[in-house]
Specification:
The protein is α+β, with helices and mostly antiparallel strands. The C terminus is likely disordered.
């Protein structure tokens, strides 16, 4: 059970704060809901208290998980690239990762798209997914580590600076 003022993560939206727990009557049945305000865009969500996990609501990752994310971003040995897949298929796969709501899934999308962007131009949809993945990863890590999101984002970009600079000089 989450409590008011607790930071939580909602899939594909990112970090939010539980503002309250309220009771509503819907279809003749009374149900309790978390009122969650997403920090990145001020959207307010109602998430059922009885099934928050089914709705994807979860607590913030641990500090150890966030440190592991940086390690996984540094490790490029598992990168398969875009061989044999068109941008549309990759887009659907990456969207599924983001919608599962885990920090690992968002970091996977972020890493893959940053590595692909060093080799070729991303489609419009992939660029949007890259921005979304960067937001999800940097916001959660910033909240866990007590940093500013911009600092975390700059740190992630620095991990890939060698690849991205090479791409810019080739243009």
């Amino acid at each position: 059970m989450f409590s008011p003022e607790q930071l939580v993560v909602y899939p594909a939206q990112g970090v939010g704060i539980v503002e309250s727990v309220t009771s509503q009557e819907i279809g003749g049945c009374r149900a309790d809901f978390y009122i969650v305000r997403i920090l990145g865009n001020n959207i307010t969500l109602m998430v059922p208290v009885k099934t928050p996990r089914n709705a994807g609501l979860r607590p913030l990752s641990s500090k150890k998980q966030c440190e592991d994310i940086f390690d996984s971003l540094r490790d490029r040995s598992s990168f398969t690239g875009y061989t044999g897949q068109n941008w549309n298929r990759r887009y659907r796969d990456y969207l599924e990762y983001l919608q599962n709501g885990t920090l690992d899934g968002a970091a996977h999308v972020l890493k893959e798209l940053l590595l692909i962007s060093a080799e070729k131009d991303l489609s419009f949809g992939e660029r949007r997914l890259l921005e979304q993945a960067m937001h999800l990863v940097s916001m959660e890590i910033a909240c866990v580590l007590g940093s500013r999101q911009e600092e975390i984002q700059a740190g992630i970009e620095q991990l890939f600076a060698d690849l991205l600079q090479t791409e810019e000089t080739n243009i």
